[in-house]
Amino acid sequence: MKLTLSALLITGGLAVTSLASATTATFQLCSTAGCRTGGSQTVTSTYAQTKYPIVFANGMGGFSSIAGIYNYWYGIPENLTANGASVFVSQEASFNSSEVRGEQLLNQVQQILAITGAAKVNLIGHSHGGPSVRYVAGLLPTKVASVTAVAGVTFGSPVADTVQSLVNSPVGPILAPVISAGVNAFFTIVGVSSGQYYSQDSLAGLSSLTSKGSAAFNAKFPQGVPTNQCDQGAAVANGIRYYSWGGTAVWTNVLNPADYLVGATSLLIPGASDGLVPRCSSHLGQVIRDDYYQNHFDEVNQVAGLISPFTTSPVTLFRLQANRLKTAGL
């Protein structure tokens, strides 16, 4: 078969164009300072070519791309771009309240709408990025086509509850300011290295992810939130489609240092979890699946793609979601 044929080749269930007709596209890294090119990809498929741009929102402790080299969404924007999607990786403060981070994302979404001329965006948030995308959808519903929460902390995390109880203990006023100052300083450096200069507030971020903080946020932004934690929420609210998925594994790859962190934090969570977020707490809107063999870091292909070799690749899950949005006309 000659590469000059313009016919489509069907490979692994994906429609892939011939190399002769391939084009080049870039995904964008954004912050309040604007958007810059994150990297160029050869586009050989329209499988993930959604009607509206896809915008990613990072979780707690996250970033967009450190020094333009290491991406929080490891390998995911590149794959979606290669499959035809228009992708923007936003940057929120690594640590701050759900409302502050949501407002930061809102500002970037407005920039992206202006840059692209698109009528709407598809929002995808991981972990604390789940409340961020819900905040934007709540305040700017006519400009959001869909919201997808990946291990979003809809109902909070017992890990945050435990740490908050330590902050509120007699030793809290002594230790909390010292520890939080160190965390804030470190992630200020991480933020600067990824091109943003947000102030960090780890205590505000912690409070937002407690059960109490999440309940208060849900009262303000109830769209897609299940009435009962382990149920599904409304698939469509205010004309916006809501989706979610999550994992229930902890130890998935002994070579991944993040496994040891979630291995410890998982001990604070009764029942199934991804090591940081309980299974049912990840539910929002249409629950695609809540028991992937992935932990909280695996869900965004961290660290450096060191996930279990026996599970579905998170890159594949995001590509499937993009195709799901495309099929829905989004």
Automatic annotation (TrEMBL):
It comes from Aquirhabdus parva. The keyword Signal applies. Gene3D superfamilies: alpha/beta hydrolase. It comes from the Bacteria. Keywords: Signal. Residues 52-279 form the AB hydrolase-1 domain. Residues 1-22 form the signal peptide. InterPro entries: AB_hydrolase_1, AB_hydrolase_fold. This is Triacylglycerol lipase.
